[in-house]
Design brief:
The chain contains 8 helices and no strands. With about 190 residues, the chain is mostly helical. The chain has 2 domains: about 80 residues, Rna Polymerase Sigma Factor, Chain: A; about 70 residues, Arc Repressor Mutant, subunit A. Helix 6 packs across helix 8. The termini are far apart.
Amino acid sequence: MEKAPENASLLVRVASGDADAVRACIDRYGPLVWSLTRRMFRDERHAEDCVQEIFIELWRSAERYDPTRGSEATFITTIARRRLIDLKRKLARSRSVEMVDEEFAANDESLRHVDIRDEAELAQQALDRLRPEQKSVLVLSVHDGLSHQQIADHLSLPLGTVKSHIRRGLERVTEMLRASPGLGQVEEVAS
């Protein structure tokens, strides 16, 4: 691979295999990546692992960077946010599996677990009946734990629109869940 000129952007140089550019990229964008990571993960151990994974993903994706489409900081922020969301989902799944395993080992109230699973299925059915834009903001808010502003930034939507989608989506899910315990017989509620 041909080495990029010294005056090329850091990511172009990283993509060409320039080790000095890798160190410079970490020095320049490390604080940005740490800031994003610490907002999502308070636990120092998880934060360190996430920062490492983000930079590894950045090295892998550096050749996709196009300086005509945006700044390096924007590209790095996008990669970091996507990776953080993936890692948060992965962590949530592993925690939920651990919690379920602990509950089964601690007591044998399997009927209680069936009720919880049924309620989760009903909630998922209600969520699936939402308009796509309402569903996506609710998933980002409730499941991924993003703030309204983070959702607006992630989806490139105005903050007021995000808040409206969340409010209307929650109202609609509540109406559907109250309408029928089986939800299968519920007609679509107009929004």
